[in-house]
Design a protein that fits this description.
469 residues, 4-stranded antiparallel beta sheet, 16 helices, 17% strand, rod-shaped, disordered C terminus
Length: 469
Amino acid sequence: MKMDKDFSWKKTQEVEIDLTDWIKSLLLHWKGMVICALAAAVLLGGYSYIKSKSIKEAAGRESAEEIELKEEEQQSVAEAVQLAKEIADLENYMEQSVLMQIDPYQKNRIVLLYSIGQTSKQELQKISESYLSFLSYGGAVGAVAQADSEWDGIGDSYLAELVSAWQRADSTYRIISENDVGSIPAETLLYVEVTGVDAKMAEKLAADIQKALKDYEDEVQKVCGSHKLSLLKGEKSVVFDSSLLAQQREKKESLKSSRGNLKSMTEVFSHKQKAVYQEETGLDFNEGGQGTNAERAGVSFRYILLGVFAGVFGYCGLFACRYLMHDAIRSEKEFKAHYTIPFYGCIPVGKRQKEAERIWGRIRFMCRQQKVAKFCLAADSALSVQEKECMEQMKGKFEKWGIQPDVVEDLEGNISAWDQLADTGAVLLLCRLGHTSYATVDEQMGFYLENGIRVLGTVALDQRADNWL
């Protein structure tokens, strides 16, 4: 290869890339590679979730509008939809009903005993039925809820479950002649049972029911006739209610059975039936317990794996571009392939002390052969703390051997260092792998040769092993 006359210290103008050093440098930056791989995996995983979700929603809309089912399949879907609605209603009832929350083994109740009197036998039945209707069919609890805002959180239908009423009439077996029917006074007993989650609730509801009955008495007198409604007694108690226990168990068993039936029905659905079922119920099919976790999540493992590879590949590409565009000496092999300047080795900063001593020994041998007792170690820029410590160790070692090395930093901007170069007349170039550029070495070599300074060779400092990111 033809040598350039202006750069006699060069073998070639082209820089040969050391593939081994590139791979080594890439592996030293493994943390950055892992971060890029994880970031790409998260991004592609999120993209796969959004894509899967949009496809399912589109498929659901398309199914409802375009999919046609056979009569038998449509009937099965209709039955499942009806059962799903019944289950939802029952679940809502079990959650909202106060009666379903009461402990049947410790039921707090208050029984109010009323007497309806001072009326005739003919009017008594209408009067008593008016009160029973008022208590049993929501009139009383409606009045209670309207009068007291404390019951706003409980629906009227659930509040009505806590109130029950029945009557018992006296003189049941008396024989009355037709002439005496209108003249004999009649009387009946009305029982009202009020239940609460606890004693405090039962007492509050019982007091409000009493007030509602008192207010309702005037209305009954206007419609049904004159009478007297009197509270005879109120009895508090905590009892075991076997009928309530049976009712609660019946509701729970019904809910459990319905859920099992719905699951059995939907498990055998085709994809078309599932789509129609989901559209008509307005619920995600997987909410019923069908499908796998992967289907519910909608995240594709293939996209995650692709993201990992894409992140690694992308990082390697960016690293390669930066590696190629960075005009810096990166390895001993690159330096030797480009320059004719003697190269004594790479000193690992802070590590492998034996390797450093081996390189110092080669420099000492060169000084002895060329009868050099004093030279300058010239660095193109300021050294780091670890690099300075390394040079101090080298200086101490050479002084024991009778050789005086002077370390010169930032040669370009340090004018006083030029006098040291003139005094010693010999220089050893100090390159920093990954930092010192080829252009800097060329400038220094031109300066030394123009001023008659003897170039003994080059030694490199390698601190890249400590730079993990």
